[in-house]
Design brief:
single chain, Rossmann fold, alpha/beta
Length: 281
């Protein structure tokens, strides 16, 4: 049995879908809900990182687990790993982030480094996945595209190497089902260096209409982030944006092709496949 946490999320849903064809899969959710994936060997379990007793139930009989946590200020990884060790889980694949290896010391990165260390020192097999920004992050532009055909971002010409979540999921599935990935850390980047401005242009081509790009000021970006995040997270995200603007997220070392046996997906390919999720497509 393989447990997938975050099964309704960007990568977890795709991990569950890919596993379900050939493996027994248990999907962990905080509330009873329609499962992200269905099939004869798929089951769901209600569990919460804040409730250790529920984690024990979720991990019972599990041989490998895909771990995704979203609240850096909470000890969710620690609780999950304690339960995993107690239940005899053999391997944990942790979704981390490429920024862990970058030259930055913001709040989120420091916490992610600490979570990685928890995984490495827990006493069971582990694999760490460090993806760059997901191509699917551009779905956050859907509202402004629908409203007035615009895309806004800070440092519009700063390059990143966005990765297709489906590729990250393919690596996760390999790591969950093949022993040779134990004790390995994989930085997963896309095949192209792209700025937000370039992504907007490519997305417009996929949608069949040009999109207008508007660059945010630093003040505007901070105010927008403050509407959704507490101050430490806002400052961390602003530091990361500045790191990218300074070239700190330039393309380097792509493991995707060797790990998946196929070329890494391009942003144009992702945009073509997901154009229906944007207004007016």
């Amino acid at each position: 049995m393989i447990l997938v946490t975050g099964a309704t999320g960007t990568v977890g849903r795709e991990v569950a879908r890919q596993l379900a064809a050939d493996h027994a899969v248990r999907l962990m959710s905080r509330t009873p809900a329609r499962p992200a994936v269905s099939g004869p060997r798929v089951e769901t379990v209600v569990a919460d990182f804040a409730r250790p007793d529920s984690l024990t139930r979720a991990l019972s009989g599990v041989r490998a687990a895909f771990l995704v946590t979203c609240h850096p200020a909470e000890p969710h990884d620690e609780r999950f790993l304690e339960a995993a060790v107690a239940e005899g889980v053999g391997h944990v694949v942790k979704l981390s982030a490429a920024v862990v290896g970058d030259d930055t010391d913001d709040f989120l990165t420091l916490r992610q480094r600490a979570m990685e260390e928890e995984v490495r020192s827990c006493g069971i097999g582990w694999t760490l996945l460090r993806p760059r920004a997901f191509m699917s992050n551009t779905l956050s532009w859907a509202d402004s595209i629908g409203r007035d055909g615009t895309v806004g971002a800070l440092y519009g010409n700063a390059s990143n190497a966005p990765v297709d979540p489906r590729d990250v999921a393919r690596v996760a599935v390999r790591a969950l089902t093949e022993r040779e990935h134990a004790g390995r850390t994989y930085t997963l980047v896309g095949p192209e260096q792209l700025s937000a401005r370039e992504q907007a242009r490519i997305l417009g081509e996929a949608l069949g209409r040009p999109l207008r790009f508007r660059e945010w000021t630093v003040r505007e970006a901070r105010e927008r982030l403050a509407q959704s995040y507490p101050p430490p997270v806002v400052e961390a995200l602003m530091k990361r944006a500045a790191l990218q603007a300074g070239g700190g997220k330039a393309l380097r070392g792509d493991a995707l092709a060797s790990l998946t046996g196929r070329a890494a997906g391009t942003f144009r390919g992702w945009a073509d496949d997901h154009a229906h999720r944007f207004p007016g497509s």
